[in-house]
Amino acid sequence: MSDLRNYISKIKKNKELKTVKTQVSTKFEIAGITAKVDGSHAVLFENIKESNFNLVSNLVGTRKRFALAVGGTEDNIHEKVISAIKKAKSPKIISSGKFQENKSKNLLSMPIVTHFEKESGPFITSSIVYVKNPETGKQNSSFHRMMPIDKTHFSIRMVEGRHLHRCFVDAKQHGEDLKIAITVGVHPAISIAGAYQAQWGKSEIDIANSLLDGKLTLTKLPFTGLNVPSGSEIVMEGRVLQDKTHPEWMVEMLQTYDHERSQPVFELENMYFRNNPIFHDVLSGYSEHRLLMGMPIESKLNGDLKQAFNQTQQVSMTNGGCNWLHAVVQIKKKHDSDPKKIIKKTFESHRSLKQVTVVDDDIDPNNAEAVEYAMATRFQADKDLVILKNVRGSSLDPSSNQKKLQTAKMGIDATRSLSKRPEGFELAKIPKINKIKLEKYFT
Question: What is the pTM of this model?
Answer without folding.
Answer: 0.89
